[in-house]
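Regression test attached.
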Amino acid sequence: MIAHAIFFYTFSLIAVVSAIMVTASKNTVHSVFFLILDFISISCLFIMIGAEFLGMIMLIVYVGAVAVLFLFVVMMLNVAQQKNQWFAGQQSSKHIPVGLIISTLIFVEVIIVIGGWKYKPEIFDINNSFAQTSISNTHSLGQILYTDYIHVFQISGMILLVAMVGAIVLTFRQRSGVKRQSYIKQISRERADGVEVLEVQSNKGVKIDD
Amino acid sequence: MEYVNIVFEQVYKILFLLVPVLVSVAMVVWLDRRVWAFVQKRQGPNVVGPFGILQSLADALKYIFKEMIIPSSSNKVIFILAPIVTMTLALISWAVIPFGATQVLADINVGILYLFAVSSLGVYGIIMGGWASNSKYPFLGAIRSAAQMVSYEVSIGVIIINVLLCVGSLNLNDIVIAQQNLWFVIPLFPMFVIFFISALAETNRPPFDLPEAEAELVAGYQTEYSGMMYAMFWLGEYANILLMCSMGAILFLGGWLSPIEIYPFTLIPGAIWLIFKILLLFFLFALVKAIVPRYRYDQLMRLGWKVFLPFSLVWVVLTASYLFYFNLLPVN
């Protein structure tokens, strides 16, 4: 149990500190790296409570794909430079009231959630009862998702698909005057189409037609 | 005292796994260069040791004694972290590879997801190295590599779903045992081919080595690296290649199972069979490097998204419907 506690507090400490560093660090790319560290330590916490499938999916989806896109955007746009320019002009003070309102709202919400939350000492027994069954975490998740909640699951999938199609439609531009390459044409090109062997007569040359 | 004993036992096990992996990485680099040379009617490295087998060790020694140059305009912490991340990620994934029914360091329930997750993290070493170098060529290489690895991961994920449909478990040992009667390479042969090609792209091997295309980008994300840091990138890369080979061997070629379950073959331990299969796949990797020209970048993206992804998705539907209608779904 002591080892469990040590690991739990290590991972949660790393998670909290890196979450603070995401907002605190000056360099935007550094904050994305801290975000990645945060994701990784949270997935470690998931694995520690026995939700191994969630932990791994967290690693694959958030760290492996989403954070890569974040990094992409941050590196390509050079946000750090823009941010410095933005702070240099005294415009930032305009946004402070909005930020204050939103953060107060979030604070009140957190207070409400924590106020309604009671520590349940029997939570460890529930954990143990799960561990004793022979069904693994992934199996039980699948058995619930694909039976009781199949419609909700399908609908959330459809929403994601619609969002993806929408994003593509919004950003897709049909530009005129772009020469597109036809792969079939390129691959099916034979030697006879491109090369011709000619007998070149001296002082007469060859007629090139194209 | 008990904790100390447990820790020592685990450290012993880990060393017993990692040292052979590192040595075999060195050997495999030699094998790669040798196969490449023979395809081109050259001799390849044949001076250091018998058949030049110690060439990689000599190279490693050279790298250790070379000066590590850290560019003055680079982001130093991330610059040094990048090769460490690459190498660590390449080595930690070996923890779940089963070398036999019981010979596995961590027999976790979600072994295949762990392998997939770690291989999807591999892109960070490259991005960090490319960005921290603060130079044009490494940055271009890193961007190419990130886009390439993310796109080919998608098709590898769908291929893994194909195999998992036939197994019904995410545990690597269960995947191997499910192939006792029939290796998955036979019913899922097209998936094996696509997995192999995606593995080439995932490990930045030719013909998909655009991140380090020497004709365009000097050496891609490795341009600014020297000495031991370069060697660590190089070790991590080859450890990743071996890992992809072992993933292919476990998913499709029956892992540690012997090809024929009859008397003289069953005497040979499973680890030998697994190593043999890994080497077979690696030989194919080396051959591909020697005989195929590099892809153009748009063709690479097209192959990943417009050919492999739809094809493997259709195969998921086919596999699932076949298993469903013939009542072969693995239900426990």
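Expected vs. actual: identical. Chain A touches chain B at residues 3, 29, 33, 36, 52-53, 56-57, 59-60, 63-65, 68, 71-72, 75-76, 136-139, 181, 183 (CB under 8 Å).
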